[in-house]
Specification:
Strand order of the largest sheet: 3-2-1-4-5
Strand content: 15-25%
Subcellular location: Cytoplasm
Protein name: tRNA N6-adenosine threonylcarbamoyltransferase
Radius of gyration: 21 Å
Keywords: Acyltransferase, Cytoplasm, Iron, Metal-binding, Transferase, tRNA processing
Family: Belongs to the KAE1 / TsaD family.
Number of strands: 10
GO molecular function, one term: tRNA N(6)-L-threonylcarbamoyladenine synthase activity
Bound molecules: adenosine-5'-triphosphate, fe (iii) ion
């Protein structure tokens, strides 16, 4: 079975071909991502109207490139999968309309995929993880703990009540005059910093459960910066390094502790092959990865961190999630709609009562 996947929910236009072998394993034949970083750079964030127009312009090109890289034509494809939400509605619409056109033109079945399910199912594409596994989805727009129980069953154990960590990394970088995206800049600066130099809060650690908060942490960095600037009439490079190290350590501490709690909840299901998987751009952070891998080790669980290009937005994950949904009997009609909001546990009854 060969699927063409489309992704256009944020600021990356993606098209990918994924092939499912008879033994059930999947292979990525092509994975095209056309980014829009330069387009939005001057605005300090993604501008929805610009993003929508760029998706509409680029999606056909992405599809052509994905097919030609895979050495295929549309006639070799068995299924069209597309992100139907959540995301910026203009972009999602571009993808959904393109997918409908392709499916109608070639007489192919169509499957609408939840973008978050795409992220959450990635460890099955890369590592063939069996259900159920614990997933920390940690990106520019999201932060949540999920028990991935089936292709269409996700139990949310908790998540951020305000900012996503990626957003916080980006804001801290902006506060300190570092380049965007903030994650890699802050991580780089933190290498020469002392995490203990400035004390930052560990939000919500004193409360039970797996919910997280990052907005206070960002404000704490702002206050400390302002005080340094007032006291010494400027920021030294060493201060920036200490601030970054302190901030990153606080994020890693909080995420590690909440992951430990989520793990206890997950292990109560007595999974046969316990595993902790991460996805999303912040999963690229080395300090965080090593902390999470320790948490997994301590719990006797496998740690699965997909390569970065499959952690950030891409169409291969959408193609793969589409394959899984198709195998599960999902078929969508031409009335498939684009959804700006679409919580993952929408049609999933909560499995667990505790830990919420
Ligand atoms: P979503 O997937 O939630 O819609 P998004 O597509 O914007 O959001 P991603 O592309 O998954 O998010 O990730 C981008 C985020 O990851 C940015 O906020 C960026 O700063 C962060 N990031 C990237 N590399 C690192 C790193 N090494 N350390 C910390 N954060 C990082
Ligand atoms: Fe994403």
């Amino acid at each position: 079975l060969t699927v063409l996947g489309l992704e256009s929910s944020c600021d990356d236009t993606g098209a990918a071909i994924v092939h499912k072998r008879p033994d059930g394993t999947a292979e990525i034949l092509s994975n095209v991502v056309i980014g829009q970083a330069e387009l939005h750079a001057a605005f300090g964030g993604v501008v929805p109207e610009l993003a929508a127009r760029a998706h509409a312009e680029k999606i056909d090109i992405a599809v052509e490139q994905a097919l030609s890289t895979a050495g295929m034509g549309l006639r070799d494809v068995d299924l069209i999968a597309v992100t139907a939400g959540p995301g910026l509605i203009g972009g999602v619409l571009s993808g959904v309309m393109c997918a409908k056109g392709l499916a109608a033109g070639a007489g192919l079945p169509l499957v609408g995929v939840n973008h978050l399910a795409g992220h959450a199912l990635t460890p099955r594409l890369t590592n063939g993880l069996p259900f159920p596994y614990l997933m920390l989805l940690v990106s520019g727009g999201h932060c949540q703990f999920l028990i991935v129980e089936a292709v269409d069953r996700f139990s949310r154990l908790g998540g951020t009540i305000d900012d996503a960590p990626g957003e916080a990394f980006d804001k801290v970088a902006r506060l300190l005059g570092l380049a965007q995206p903030g994650g890699p800049s802050v991580e780089g600066a933190a290498r020469s910093g002392d995490a203990a130099r400035f004390a930052f809060p560990r939000p919500l650690l004193d409360r039970p459960g797996c919910d997280l908060s990052f907005s206070g942490l960002k404000t704490a960095v702002l206050r400390t910066r302002d005080k340094l600037v007032a006291d010494q009439h400027g920021l030294r490079e060493a201060d920036v390094a200490h601030l970054c190290a302190g901030f990153q350590a606080a994020v890693a501490d909080v995420l590690a502790e909440k992951t430990r709690r989520a793990m206890l909840n997950y292990l109560s299901l007595t999974p046969e092959r316990p595993a902790l998987a991460v996805a999303g751009g912040v999963a690229a952070n080395g300090a965080l990865r090593s902390r999470l891998s320790q948490v997994a080790d301590t719990a006797g669980a496998e740690f699965c961190a997909p390569p970065l290009n499959l952690c950030t937005d891409n169409a291969a994950m959408i193609a793969f999630a589409g394959l899984e949904a198709f195998g599960n009997g999902q078929r969508d009609g031409f009335d498939l709609s684009a959804r700006p909001r679409w919580p993952l546990d929408d049609r999933a009854p909560a499995l667990l009562g505790s830990g919420r």
